[in-house]
Design a protein that fits this description.
With about 200 residues, this protein is mainly alpha-helical. It contains 8 helices and no strands.
């Protein structure tokens, strides 16, 4: 994949590194990457590298896990760039991909090796069906929210971001995060009541 092998050595590119008239926006860089520009994604990653690593480090148990999560996330973003729907800032999209990569890595690390049980050992197994059903119902309700409300409520209520951090992540004002969360929570209360009853 052109350009992706060099991502580990990319320097952060400041927004003002070139003539202000020639600096491409994040959306321009992503569009150029999708159109086949070999260096656009590298430039986009360089622009956000420090913040993405900082985010991964806060969400990971080790430095190695953070490095691996960012690498996994950038490979995912590189390959899946065509699926970006322009319903949020490119930086928010990259942050969410890094958060998901960190969460996946934490899940993988939580898996413990199996041990052989003695034949007469009786170990109760927890029934997680209700937990899975709840997750499905919540996901169905979230998908019925407008994308802007869904992004705010997921960042604050599910990923644990403060209002200030969510505002920075989503590139909106703190008051906007609060109002979107309030509207989303009110709508979710109605939707979850209907979905649970249905």
């Amino acid at each position: 994949m052109p350009g992706i092998a060099r991502l580990a050595n990319v320097r952060e590119v400041p927004h003002s590194a070139a003539d202000p008239g020639s600096v491409r926006t994040d959306a321009d860089l992503l569009s150029a990457h999708i159109a086949g520009d070999r260096y656009a994604f590298e430039e986009l990653f360089g622009r956000h590298r420090t913040r993405l690593y900082r985010l991964a480090r806060r969400r990971s148990q080790t430095v190695e896990d953070a490095d691996d999560a960012v690498q996994d996330a950038m490979l995912s973003a590189h390959r899946g760039a065509g699926a970006f729907r322009n319903d949020a800032a490119v930086s928010s999209w990259l942050h969410l991909i890094v958060m998901n990569a960190c969460r996946d890595r934490l899940r993988r690390n939580a898996i413990r090796p199996t041990t052989t049980l003695e034949e007469d050992a009786c170990v109760p197994v927890a029934d997680r069906a209700a937990e899975v059903e709840t997750a499905i119902v919540v996901r169905q309700a979230l998908m019925q929210l407008p994308a802007s409300q869904r992004a705010a409520v997921v960042a604050v209520d599910m990923h644990g971001y403060s209002v200030a951090d969510a505002a920075a992540l989503l590139d909106i004002a703190e008051g906007t995060v609060k109002s979107r969360c309030a509207r989303a929570r009110a709508r979710l209360a109605v939707l979850l009541g209907c979905l649970a009853a249905g």
